[in-house]
Amino acid sequence: MGTSWTSQKPVPDVDLTQKTVIVTGANTGIGYETAKTLAQLGAKVIVACRSEAKANEAMERMKMEHSEEKADDKKSKVEIKANDLDVEFMTLDLSSIASTMSFVEEFKAKGLPLHILVCNAGMAYGGEVKTADGFELHFQVNYLSHFLLTLHLLPVLKASRGNAKIILVSSMAYRGAGWHEDNMQSINKGQLSKYGSTKLYQIMEMFTLAEKLDGFGIGVFSLHPGFVDTDIVKRENQQVSGSMKFFVGMLNSMGAMQIQFFA
Ligand SMILES: NC(=O)c1ccc[n+]([C@@H]2O[C@H](COP(=O)([O-])OP(=O)(O)OC[C@H]3O[C@@H](n4cnc5c(N)ncnc54)[C@H](OP(=O)(O)O)[C@@H]3O)[C@@H](O)[C@H]2O)c1
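Above are the sequence and the NAP SMILES. Below is the predicted complex in structure-token form.
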């Protein structure tokens, strides 16, 4: 199955009023656009980020762009449903199990329903780092903590009684991943292999969860967003090659961002 994100308004007449959505890593890049767009479609969006300052700045920008797009609908990518954007910051540092579990508890304490969980946050070139919890950094941020988050939020998703969605933002880099049965965290493997493994695990998670949740009214999806010129290859102190930066920039300049679903 597949769909394209073009410069035309691509989203059919979707109304997410009364829906609650969590987007991880919503302060920049793909997460930012996702959070803004879902909020424009009427959803209440939880902007789940590790930095409150960055999240606040992002939410201000979303609101400013929303006002401009409302005033001139040629600028918007969707049929706008929201008058004002309902976006709210909550702290989530996926490199920490304690932070991930605090997020879960705080979200549950709000008593909000949950209709869509977008596991978007991710990192690719973080070097060889172990977290305070003892896991390889990419493994914990991209895969493990999102898995924990998803499992603990399942009761809330189930309570939304049908049509809930779990979206796992993966990458076609999974194709370059090695399957190291005795080294699941890809320690001492190359950066792209390490990153690719985490994206492979997300796809495996998608198949397993979709099977186990059959009949609960929860769809599980995983996708490759296309090559998008975001911060992912531009962060300081990252081990990313110049050729990779050039490759992403070149592909991005070639045209529309494409969204492809794996299943
Ligand atoms: N861009 C592409 O071409 C591409 C291709 C395939 C797949 N993807 C996937 O798309 C997703 C979004 O990537 P992007 O390109 O939008 O990258 P990005 O611009 O670098 O954004 C990544 C987001 O993840 C957040 N994040 C990183 N570490 C985190 C942590 N420990 N806890 C919580 N949040 C954390 C970042 O927060 P900070 O700003 O605070 O660091 C940021 O909000 C990722 O899963 C990536 O693997 C991207």
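Residues 25, 27-31, 49-51, 54, 92-95, 120-123, 141, 169, 171, 224-225, 227-228, 230-232, 248 surround NAP (CB under 6 Å).
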